[in-house]
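fold-stage: in
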Amino acid sequence: MEDYTVTMKGQMDSTTERRLSAEQNWLEILDSNLQTLQNIWNEMGLPEYECKERLQNTVKQINNLLSDMIAEEESYMHLATSKIEYYKTEVNALEEKLNLQEENEGDFLGLVVEEHYYRQRLKQLREEEKRRKILYSDLIENLQILYTRLGEDFSSISSNFDLSTEHLDALSAQLKRKRELCKSRSAMLKMNMAEIKSMVEEMHYTTKSSFKNSLIMGEDITQNCSLQFLKSVQSFHDELKHEYVKFIEQRKLICEEKMAQLNQMWNCCKIASEQRQLFMTSIKDKYSEKALVQYNNEINNLEKFYESRKPVLQLYEEWENLWQMKINFEKRGLDAVRFCNRGGALLQEEKERKLIEHKLPKVFKKKTNIF
């Protein structure tokens, strides 16, 4: 404001000098023109009274013209004064509304300068008001969306219309906090829902609850970040987690039963240990749903294999049993204590040994013929 006044003061000093010079020239021109008229009237031979009358008329016309000009300029001055008052009122109101005061001493060196200053000041304030209104509207709109998502009351925020920088800064800070809260709750909801859907899919879970079904079938539920909704989802998650733990324990028991059955079938089908190991290493999680399917498939395949090879497998098993009995008899034959036994046990043992020696070649021959 001070720089502006100094600049305008310099311009006014220069203008004053030019005005004084123009007034002097104007008086000289007026006097010269009046003298010219007087000479014309004298040459025309007009009487003195008529020359005097004409001079008076000329002065009167000049006065009338000046009066009209004065009236016009006064109207301009009054207009400038009224504009200044209007601008001042608007400026004061906007400065108070925007909490944006500017000090000025009121030394404007004329109404024109003062009118120009307040007009420009009002223009600046209106532009600032427009900018703040846009910012305020944007902040309120985004806050309303976040408050709705968070399930919170927005009426206390929307009812306080204040364009001061302090209030706008407070709204901006509040918007940032609410966004962070929404982000945090959304992340928690996404994590819970990912686990819920995973457990539901694995357990083939079904429910009659419309709320739970809406959660399971919903694509994106993170738009609702209210605390009540978050607690409801968390409660369902905890409930499902409890059932899931029992489900996993039950499936583990079933898998262990299947593995025992599988070992039994491997033994029946005389599957080599390398092949068994290869199958087990192909299963990443031996208690998973996928593993259970693999166990059942392998058992079914082994049962089919056993049925298709049943005669030879039974002979092979019979031969193995006889061979094992033969080995056991041979081990006992090395024990001298057995000769001390009485009551015909040694005789019975010898009969059994001979029977085994008799059966072994026959079983082996049958097995060989089948192959």
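fold-stage: in (second)
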Amino acid sequence: MGKPPFPLQDQLRGFSRALFSTWLYHRRFNILFDAGEGISTALLNRVFGIRKVFLSHGHADHIAGLINLVNIRNLGAGDQTTELEIYYPRNNALIEMVRDYLLRTQSELSFPLAWRPVEADQNVVLDGRRGKTFLKTFRTQHSQRQLSLGFNIVEARCRLRPEFKDQPQQMINEAIWKNGKEKVVERFEQIVFTYGGDSRPISPTSISQSLFLCHECTYLNQGDDERNFHQHSVLDEVLDVAGAAEVKTLMLFHLSLRYSHEEVRGALVNALRRRKRGFHVVFLYGDRFYSLDRPSGWCSAPDSEGENEGNGEGEAPRDSEERSGEVML
């Protein structure tokens, strides 16, 4: 098999078109970020692999697929016993209206369904990770009338202390034997994946050194926001955020329908010429991913034939990012 077009390409499925629908499924963690219209039609029985749903805010293009998602999980041919948890910004009236509708119309579900309101700076331990991987929420700027959230998936890791990085293995082993492992390695937290939902430019401090940043990019040019709502991000702003945060890979999504994928690619090429880039860039246009290296694009990663999608058991595939000597704790 050849090298994937971009890190996590074999783990992500999604769709995003500003105003119409946005959702992103991360297979490694069995997590769905937002639940726009059409998700059940796109994933079919793969919806049974979803264990947790994280909603960034309550606008229709990000929650319209929830009702049918729950319905298919209840009536479809798949695992109807595993709990589905839906995390959403606390006190979001629009999401709670959908919740109340489902409680009235789906009162006898075949699986446990939990609605979990969350706030900014809250941690959620991810299943099957022995407490070493968790999701952390952070506040974003989108609508003045409701709380909107972004999400970091964080792994607890350890690495050699700086004074041992260039030492031969024998010397490292001797130091561990003499002084103990805690004197040779240090613990740290690595953001391995970030999803920002709809937002103004995210604060770089909230997503510092994320390995994979999903940042909305509704507009290619500052003047394209004719209504002056100032609720979304512009290409140059997003690239500045990615550079300041020192991310490894940037994925743009929530692009306005006014742009063709060729226009998006052209604007990216021109914008990147004006700056020093230390990160890889891809964008999700509809259900296809595009990069500067593959202008034809490719669809969301298909599942391998015979794969038991989302069984939630055992260790999931690891990120394709290099770890530079880092190991899991």
